[in-house]
Design brief:
The chain is an alpha/beta fold. The chain is built from 15 helices and 13 strands. The protein has a seven-stranded mixed beta sheet with strand order 9-8-10-11-7-12-13, sandwiched between helices. It is globular and about 60 Å long. The relative contact order is 0.10. Mean pLDDT is 93; it is low at 276-280.
Length: 364
């Protein structure tokens, strides 16, 4: 048993999502979205480095020594997997670990709208799950892949850095590939995947132009592609993808994307007031855009600013705005008015729920 495993056990016992370790500081846990210090001594650089290097693969230590940053996955049998990031900071080394539950939660477990489960049945196209870091994108994608795994006789390839949720093949055949170990890059893995008879491809993150281009190409040639972006709305997601390309290519990409895109799911996590639901004590509010003919037309005609209106009028297709999802949680008393106000788009809708409305200096 590695010395650091005691912290992971504590993390699991406390229901924490993240563990922060840094030279010169006490260990810190993120519990229900908030950081809480562990009653433990400050870690000096040599002690922490020894603790971290005990669990890191040799080739990852070499990369860290050369670059000052590295990502990898660590697993404790019977407990959980962890996504690890090592980094250098002013007082020495630092690390953050995100717990990846060993049990993959289903769409029903997560309380996701029925349309999310239906995304696993799509024959082809591009589905993007977006949101800020730590908003539960990987958990939602894992639930969708789990649904496909249990219901489709297909070949599923996942490309991640590092591998997070590990799926056991059920009806589908699943192959997991990790960037830096099994393949050189996301783009290289995508190029290879097109020759590996895939039906469904999960790309952990669309980080660069080449990966975005290949993902769109794969979705347009008969494959179902899932991926993530760090964007806060459906309209901004479409704009971000198009803006990645040089100006002279954007018109063509607009057309290709409008044909291949199937859905954009933007999510944000909230602390639960009712203390029920998932083990993290948090609940997701989702903006859902389905690529109907009307939405495709808006993308082609450079009218993405009208996508929010299309979402409002597309409720019969399962679409919903982020503010409507937040309002639903708020009226059912799952989340606080203060956090609802902080994370919503239209502040005026949520002001009446606040006992002490704050002065928003950004509107001055």
């Amino acid at each position: 048993m590695a010395q650091i495993d005691a912290f992971f056990k504590l993390m699991n016992d406390q229901g924490a999502s993240d563990l922060h370790l840094a030279a010169g500081k006490q260990p810190v846990l993120r519990i229900r979205g908030e950081l809480e210090r562990v009653k433990y001594k400050e870690l000096d650089d040599d002690t922490l480095k020894a603790m971290l290097y005990e669990i890191a693969p040799e080739h990852k230590i070499k990369i860290f020594e050369e670059t000052g940053d590295v990502d990898f996955a660590y697993e404790i049998a019977g407990l959980a997997r962890y996504r690890a990031n090592f980094f250098r900071q002013k007082d020495g080394v630092g690390a953050v670990f995100r717990e990846i539950p060993s049990k993959i939660l289903t769409c029903q477990d997560l309380g996701l709208p029925p349309v999310i489960r239906q995304l696993a049945t799509l024959p082809r196209g591009l589905v993007l799950v977006t949101g800020p870091t730590g908003s539960g994108k990987s958990t939602t994608l894992a639930a969708i892949i789990d649904e496909a795994n249990k219901t489709r006789k297909d070949h599923i390839i996942t490309v991640e850095d590092p591998i997070e949720f590990v799926h056991v093949s059920h009806k589908a055949v699943i192959n997991h590939r990790e960037v830096g170990i099994h393949t050189k890059s996301f783009a290289a893995a995508l190029r290879g995947a097109l020759r590996e008879d895939p039906d469904i491809i999960l790309v952990g993150e669309m980080r660069d132009l080449e990966t975005v281009e290949l993902a769109i190409e794969a979705s347009s040639t008969g494959h179902l592609v899932f991926s993530t972006l760090h964007t806060s709305s459906a309209a901004k997601t479409v704009d971000r993808i198009i803006d990645v390309f040089p100006t002279e290519q954007q018109e063509q990409i607009r057309s290709t994307l409008s044909d291949g895109l199937r859905a954009v799911v933007c999510q944000s996590l909230f602390r639960r007031r009712d203390q029920s639901g998932n083990t993290m004590g948090r609940v997701a509010a989702l903006e859902i855009m389905i690529a109907t003919p009307a939405v495709r037309n808006l993308i082609r005609e450079k009218k993405t600013f009208q996508i929010p209106s299309a979402i409002q009028t597309g409720k019969k297709y399962g679409m919903q705005s982020l503010d409507d999802a937040i309002m639903d949680h708020l009226t059912k008393k799952r989340i606080s008015a203060e956090e609802s106000y902080a994370k919503c788009n239209d502040k005026s809708k949520f002001l009446p729920f606040l006992k002490n409305p704050p002065a928003d200096f950004t509107e001055a």
